[in-house]
Design a protein that fits this description.
By secondary structure, this protein is α/β, with parallel strands linked by helices. Helix content is 40%, strand content 20%. Helix 9 links the parallel strand 12 and strand 13. Helix 6 packs across helix 11 and helix 9 packs across helix 12.
Amino acid sequence: MMQVLFLPKWYPNEYDSYDGNFIENHAHAIQKKANIKVLFVHSEETDNKAFRILKQQNRGIDEVRIFFPKPKSNFKFINKVVSFFRYFEAQKIGYKELYKNGEKPDLIHIHVLSRPALLALYLQKKLQIPFVITEHWSGYLKENGKYKGFLKKLFTKFVVRKSNGVHTVSVFLKDAMQRHNLINDYVVIPNVVNTELFKPQTKDNKVPEIIFVGNILQNPKKIFDIIKGIKELKKIGKAFHLSIYGEGVDEAPAKELVKKLDLIEQISFKGTLNREGIGKAMGNSDFLILFSDYENQPCVIPEAHAAGIPIIVPDIAGIAELMQAELGIMVKTGSQTEFVEALKNMLNNYQTYDRNFIRMFGVKKFGEIEIAAQFHQFYQKALSS
């Protein structure tokens, strides 16, 4: 079986259990076709100068997490340089923990540029190990605009050019990267969902249950606008409830807005849950809402499909390319009027959606077996090139 080393910039860890969980989901799916090992490096605030190494088995995947002390100089540039070298050193330590006695991977899979590429470039030159890239970062999108800086752009172009292939989860992101002159062979494979965790549940809701899952932020999630939309929905006089799962810097003001608009009975903040908990909550809900200003391809959408529930989503290109009327309602991005009308429409008609059709769409399009097969083809092409 092919041996693949994941080098993710984001990955679940003790500081953020949701960080890059979509990358972890890909690892578990691809494991059906390849032997996956994961090396994740992260800085931490500590007075201990030693690197901290955590090793574990995650459902058959060997994972090594290396934490290095964050530099504490008064000079930002010096901290960046020191951090750069510590990151690379941590990667080399982690690699030796995963591969001993002359073992090596057949392929390296970078997830999110650009620091993880340091080890990939090193091993490509030293051991002739090819690498591929998966990009999830929305910074390339013009709506985000965070892809900037001469050195960052120069290094990113170099890494993309040296890779044996680039994968994105949406055509939208692929096109955005190519507009930045990031040239290579691209493949589009969507995010994956565990269809055993996310599945329809036997519902026992006293009132229609709406669900939101994500970071509690105004930018880009528009959490305040969602709450204001719920205020308008309340005016039609029908009972309902919105459960908000997640956390974020705008959580406190969002809760204050709920009180101010007298929505305490209609909106509950449920905090964060593990994947099993979110899967059960999704399956118990009647429909999901999203109203972001920009996204790439949110995992909550295929999760909702697998759970068999309809959705309300903005017409962002990365979402629209996989949307159809049988799955829910799409509104113009940023249009509060359309969002409110969609809420009213869905509250009155959510029971008319074919839950079995939605479920099967999710399984066939985003299930682990299908996604694993597509990645296997991607890997085979990369190795043959």
